[in-house]
Predict the 3D structure of the following.
Amino acid sequence: MSRSITHRYVDPLAQIWLDCAARIGLRVVRSPDAYAATDGAGTMTIATDDALDADDSLAQMIFHELCHSLTQGEDAFRQPDWGLDNETDRDAWREHGCLRAQAVLAGRYGLRRFFAPTTDYRAAFWDRLPADPLADRGDPSTALAIAAIRRAARPPWAPALEEALERTAAVAAAVGAARVPAGELPSLWTLLDPRPAPHPTGLPAGVPGADDGRTCGDCAWRVDARGAARCRQADAPGTPGRPGKIDPAWRGCERWEPALDCQTCGACCREAYHAVEVSPRDPAVKAQPGYVVARDGGGLELRRAGDRCAALGGGEVVDGRVTRYGCVIYDDRPRTCRDFTLGSDHCLTARRRVGLSL
């Protein structure tokens, strides 16, 4: 006797991530003719299960592609393959940025090992990442990753991406303890890591495994004000924009950074700010006239060269590293520059705008 089939089984993680992709604006189709591709018109193609490795999953593939969209930005939804060159190494550094962001986002939920990539970049790059994937601020791919992580908190990715990771962690926690028959490969479900405990400030928890003595007390964003240690990254309860109190002994959160070095940053002199006002009495007017120009509407300002101050040197990418920055008129710099304080609110804003700080 036959029966009518009215429903079909769908892997729980596939269901979660197909829903996530749809909420973000992507339709997922399966094909043996492509590993992973997007058409720039709202369709993402993922290989069929028989074309994937044993440690691949549809969920992991979708998550990785969404991390590419985060790294490339909103315009990438209108470009095939997120605008990336998949035939040469031209965009390898963008793949690195994607993987750094993927490690951070998955790590928040104890899923970093579970949701590892399975391409050639796994051994060549992912497995070599330190506990803190964003620790190397001198690598251009880190700025890409930071920008991606910040995008994850806003539409079209939010709240769908966060909710999908939350649900994945819940499923993984329930399944992870199930036994695997002897003689078979261990299950990916056994790779779930403990989820980091919430940070007392309400900011994302400290990076799992980054147990190198990081504390709020030695973070670059600590400031002592009104008789207490405070954090420029954490708002005081009920007072947005005012640094919240911290205990210097607390373990550093995800946004922890070591002491800042202007020569590895240069953010305030780059695209973070578009004009530096110069007073007629500033020494630069007479000592460095080639760097001072008239402002539209009156007044003076430092000359720009593209998206940076013309007096800023360095910042080229050489052998995959950003060279050190330096001001060629430092001794004669205007008062606006002299008054800019390392580690201030404006400093944090500048670093965020150029992708050096979360």
Remarks:
- The chain is about 25% helix and 15% strand.
